[in-house]
Each structure stands twice: as C-alpha cells, then as structure tokens.
Amino acid sequence: MDSRDKQQTDKNHHLVQAMGHAIDGIVEVLKEERNMRFHVAAAICAILVAFYLHISSMEWLWILLAIFVVFTAEFLNTVTEAVTDLIVDHHYELNVKKAKDVAAGGVLISAIFAVIVGLVIFIPHFLAII
C-alpha cells in the first residue's frame, strides 16, 4: 500500500485495497494490545494440545469457534476503546467508562466460553490417556 492509502477518506475501490486495510488492522491490534497477544498465545497452546490429542473434526470446529469468538470480541473491545477515547479526547466520562466496561465484559464472557469449550473437549481426552 502506498502512503495515500493510509490517509484514505473515501470507499475502498478494490478488494485488494480492502484486504490491505484489514491486515493493517490485525497487525495494529497485535502490536498495541497486550491482551490480544495473550489470546493468540492461548490459541496456539489450544491448537497444539488439539493436535497432540488427535481431536475429531467436530471438536476442531468447536475449538476454532471458541478461538475466533475471543479474537472477535477483543477486536470489538479495541474499537470501542479507540472510538470512545476519540470522542471524549481521553477525558473521564461515565458513559465512556460504561461502554468500555461492557466491551471488556464481552471479551471476558467469550474467554470463559473458550475455557469451557477447551475443558469439555480436552478433559475426556486426557482422562483416556491416564
């Protein structure tokens, strides 16, 4: 992407252009958000354990669903934080706190879901090994 794309104000004209912006967003979240890096590390661990345990196709679908739900929640939380900070210019505002807390709660709920999915799938496999 050239420097004009970084300051684009009109609609994307090509799929490649849109994909480039999406990739920029993913890279930005990975660079700037500590919690996202933790989620990626947890996802990698879950995937490695799943490979080790030779889980079924249906179990893979659940594991991948849980991973991508958490990733999506973290992305939406990051958007909420950025937009609300922009609106109030980083000043304390009760409604901004509420929006950020609710978005963070969504990440927490999705992470709890992911842990439950992991436990339901992995525990029987580990018990079978023992």
From TrEMBL:
Keyword check for Lipid biosynthesis, yes or no: yes
Keyword annotations of the record = ATP-binding, Cell membrane, Kinase, Lipid biosynthesis, Lipid metabolism, Magnesium, Membrane, Metal-binding, Nucleotide-binding, Phospholipid biosynthesis, Phospholipid metabolism, Transferase, Transmembrane, Transmembrane helix
Q: Where does substrate bind?
A: E74
| GO CC, one annotated term | plasma membrane
User: What membrane topology was assigned to this protein in its record?
Assistant: Multi-pass membrane protein
Name the source's superkingdom.
Answer: Bacteria
Residues the entry annotates as binding ATP: E33, E81, K100, D101
What does the record say about how the cofactor binds? Mn(2+), Zn(2+), Cd(2+) and Co(2+) support activity to lesser extents.
InterPro entries from the entry? DAGK, DAGK_sf, UDPK
Query: PANTHER family in the record, alphabetically?
Result: DIACYLGLYCEROL KINASE (PTHR34299)
Family membership noted in the UniProt record: Belongs to the bacterial diacylglycerol kinase family.
Entry protein name:
Diacylglycerol kinase family protein
Task: Record the organism.
Answer: Limosilactobacillus rudii
What is this organism's lineage? Bacteria, Bacillati, Bacillota, Bacilli, Lactobacillales
